[in-house]
Design brief:
This is Abasic site processing protein HMCES. 16% of the residues lie in helices and 22% in strands. With 336 residues, it is an alpha+beta fold. The protein has a single domain, classed as hypothetical protein yedk fold (Alpha-Beta Complex), CATH 3.90.1680.10. The termini are far apart.
Length: 336
């Protein structure tokens, strides 16, 4: 699945990171950033992008200019969570969960089939996405959070923007995720562009974290084929979507669980031995506190007239047995 992403680049930085070679040309082109009103919603770079936030996506320029080549590209800000074109009323109240869409049966979906047939394919850009480990039977608040990203050059650290070298051409490898977009019009004729992330069953090592993953486009050729809806028909484009074999991830703090937390702590690697709740504590109870807890419970049981052995008692007794004992008694200071 894909529940949160991270995208902290400014529009100009994104343009630089999204250079491409059109039709095998040697000189790379740079997609132009196209501002859209989107019913007043704006793109704000964030370490914790959640559904209903706006992020720039890549699309074929032909969607916005009939004279453009379908191989040309634009960067267009769109809202995460596709609003159906046929929805009436407030776009925030369509009542559907459209953040992600399953690849299985997508072509026959009444919701996603029409955008696919219209060639409304897009590429969602992010530095990485967050995933919570769901393969273990844990409560949602206890699930480990991971930051997933593309393999990077040796000196590039995802949590340290100063290592990305954007001012000299950049070495950052963005994740490029296949998606669909639609256009919704309000009663005043204002347009809202919105997208959904395509997902499928996970394969490989990532299956140890989650059973579904976003459809990541690993090569420039895959990106070109996915976007060029005139040259590549829908059925062939869907066949491009295969499980990604080159992903990296690391554990992060659960401060990312709250979508309102946009700080740079969201994608920081969790230090070994630290808990994931953002407290910085190791989660190991000191022996003194364990003893104190046992004594408090023991006293309460005694006061209530219950003198039953506690499960913790055996642990404490075991600790007492392991305490070092002086073999020689200390001399009495009053004895000469």
């Amino acid at each position: 699945m894909c529940g949160r992403t991270c995208l902290t680049l400014e529009p100009k930085e994104l343009e630089s990171c999204c250079k491409y070679n059109k039709n095998g040309q040697n000189k790379p082109k740079q997609p132009r950033y196209r501002n859209e009103f989107n019913c007043g919603k704006k793109y704000v770079p964030s370490f914790n992008v959640a559904p209903t936030d706006v992020t720039p996506v890549l699309v074929s320029a032909l969607h916005f200019d009939e004279s453009a080549d379908s191989a040309d590209r634009l960067l267009v800000p769109m809202m995460w969570g596709m609003v159906p074109r046929w929805h009436k009323g407030d776009f925030r109240k369509h009542g559907l969960t459209t953040n992600n869409c399953r690849l299985e049966g997508l072509a026959f979906s009444k919701l996603y089939g029409p955008p696919l047939a219209s060639g409304q394919r897009c590429v969602i850009l992010c530095e990485g996405f967050y995933e919570w480990q769901t393969v273990k039977p844990l409560k949602p608040s206890e699930r480990a959070a991971f930051y997933v990203h593309a393999p990077q050059a040796e000196k590039v650290k995802m949590e340290d923007k100063s290592t990305w070298q954007l001012e000299t051409g950049g070495q950052l490898q963005l994740l490029r995720i296949a998606g669909l977009f639609d256009v919704w019009n309000d009663e005043n004729g204002d347009k809202l562009y919105s997208y959904t992330v395509i997902t499928f069953e996970t394969e490989g090592q990532f299956a140890s974290i989650h059973h579904r993953s976003p459809a990541i486009l690993e090569t420039d050729a895959q990106v070109a084929d996915w976007l060029d809806f005139k040259r590549v028909p829908a059925n062939r484009a869907l066949n491009l979507l295969q499980p990604c074999q080159a992903l990296k991830w690391y554990r992060v703090s659960n401060v990312v669980n709250n979508s309102r937390n946009k700080s740079d702590q969201c994608n920081k690697p969790l230090e070994q031995g630290k808990s994931g709740d953002g407290s910085g504590k190791s989660g190991v109870v000191p022996k003194s506190k364990m003893m104190q807890s046992w004594l408090i419970v023991k006293k309460r049981k005694h006061d209530e007239g219950e003198e039953q052995p506690l499960a913790l008692e055996g642990t404490v007794k075991q600790e007492l047995k392991t305490e070092p004992v002086d073999k020689k008694p200390k001399p009495d200071p009053d004895v000469p």
